[in-house]
Amino acid sequence: MPLAIALSFPGGRFHATGWGRHVNEAAPEWPPAPWRLFRAFAAVWKRTLAGDALVNEHLPLALAKLTAPPLYKLPPAALAHTRHYLTQKVKGDADLVFDGFVAVSPAVELGVLWPEAELTAVEQEALGRVLARLNYLGRAEAWCATRVCDWDMLGGEPCAWVDADTGEIHGPTADRTESVRLLCLDPADWNGWSYGPKAHQPEPKWNLLAETADLQAEGWSDPPGSRWVTYLRPAQALTPPPPARKRAAREEARPRLLRFALDGPVLPRVTETVYVAELARKRVQGIFGKRFEGAASPVLSGKQADGAPLAEHRHAFFLPADEDGDGKLDHFILYAAEGFGRRELRALDDWRQTRGPAGIELNVVWLGTEEELPAARRWRSATPFIPTRHYKERGAKRDAFPRHQLAEMNLREELARRGLPEPVRVDKVEELQLEGRPLAWRHFRQQRVLGDGRRGSDFGKGFEIEFAEPVSGPIALGYACHYGLGLFVPG
Q1: Is residue 451 part of a domain?
Q2: pTM of the predicted protein model
Q3: Which of 118, 193, 233, 477 could cross-link to 486 by cystine, CB 3.0-4.6 Å?
Q4: What is the pLDDT of residues 108-153, one digit of tens each?
């Protein structure tokens, strides 16, 4: 059956300069060109799924079936730009730079259809795994969310392509159209190799994967393996619609999980997780207050306008992560069960730096949004779980289990409070393994520095939880769980 995908832009912007255009023309590419889409698919594959055997085997087969120019459905959008003056070496001299982009509502989707594609179930699964991890398209600030969809259920204006040899128009068109050229794949050469011996050779050796620096060094005017295709875009595709008399109510897109990378001269140790998270939360709240005239965000602060705390863990989790297992914190996950609104996203877009425990400034790089972490049956401690209460030896509510089982029983209580299923097994994990060397849980900082919170007297412990069915993350439980402690990762 035909393959259709839908793209939305949670940040409300699509930043991408078309091939052969200068950024100061302020003429962004719209719709996103097939060549750009395929390069994005390949980047996600190689950077995040290189170890996935299913994707490695079947994604190339899926891409080979999608080389024909696709059809589009375009949502309402508008052309916009900002102006920046970049200071030069000469005092008082500055260059004016136009930053053009397509403004599009986060609540609408752009559709892309390959009507002749016949993907097998496993090929569609491979492509789906890539789409689930595609967090931006074009420039890094052009956040996106992508999914396989039902073409007939998408709204938007049609955008068809023209066969240069026959003049035939493929697909429906709007009543009034304008021509726009998009860079597409050459079915005969996109996965060939046309570069000289000095060029970096990717794996697989496809023209699609070539480095832009090599393309420019060899003097290519257009990327080898590509071809230009004329599309008939609706004439009003980048003209904002007239304002409605009554503002229609709509549901705001609220991504729940945001990913950032940390970079700096010295990355903080994983044992400082809770303090790094506290400092990050303080920095982000400060950015929000500065941007919105001293206001506080309930999602970021955990408090309502009257100062009452948000119940049921509805506020943000600040979760530093060591994703390469070297003992240093290199990523940050922000998660909120009810999602981040437009104001929170704007503040987080301004989050460029955070401070480490030794006062070293760390760069924060936005990576994009995800709906959830991968589902798994087994979840293993990445940071120690610290009980939220003391052992009850007396009274009507005294504990009916030995004291040494407090951490495990409190863990089970916390799982139940979050609405997670009863685990079939809970096993104690004595140490965290970092690149083959053990790290005892006692080495972690186990007390907040900038606040308190409900906490028992026990030191943190590690566990592996097994459920009967896969459970989606993130899972963070116990004391200071909103600051990275009690974090579990797929085991």
Answers
A1: yes
A2: 0.52
A3: 477
A4: 999 999 999 999 999 999 999 999 999 999 888 889 999 999 999 9
Domain edge (last residue) among 346, 371, 396: 371
Q: What is the mean pLDDT of residues 73-81?
A: 86
User: How far, in whole angstroms, is CA 138 from its chain's centroid?
Assistant: 14
Nearest-angstrom CA–CA distance, 146 and 134: 7
Amino acid at 465: I
**Number of structural domains the chain divides into:** 3
The residue type at 469: E
Task: Specify the DSSP class assigned to residue 125.
Answer: H
Q: Which residues have CB under 8 Å from 105's CB, separation 6+?
A: 12, 75, 76, 250
**Which amino acid appears at position 66 of this protein?**
L
End-to-end CA distance of the chain: 36
Q: What angle do CA 115, 117, 123 make, to 5 degrees?
A: 140
Q: How many Cα atoms are found within 13 Å in the side-chain-facing hemisphere of 132?
A: 14
> Which of 329, 356, 371 is the last residue before a domain boundary?
371
Could you tell me whether strands 257-263 and 361-370 are parallel, antiparallel, or unpaired per DSSP bridges?
antiparallel
Domain that includes residue 173, residue range: 3-190+225-234
Q: How far apart are CA 71 and CA 162, in angstroms?
A: 11
Residue-wise pLDDT for 149-186, tens only, equals: 999 999 999 999 999 999 999 999 999 999 999 999 99
Do residues 7 and 132 both lie within one domain? Answer: yes
477, amino acid identity: L
Residues 33 and 44 in one domain: yes
Length of the chain equals 491
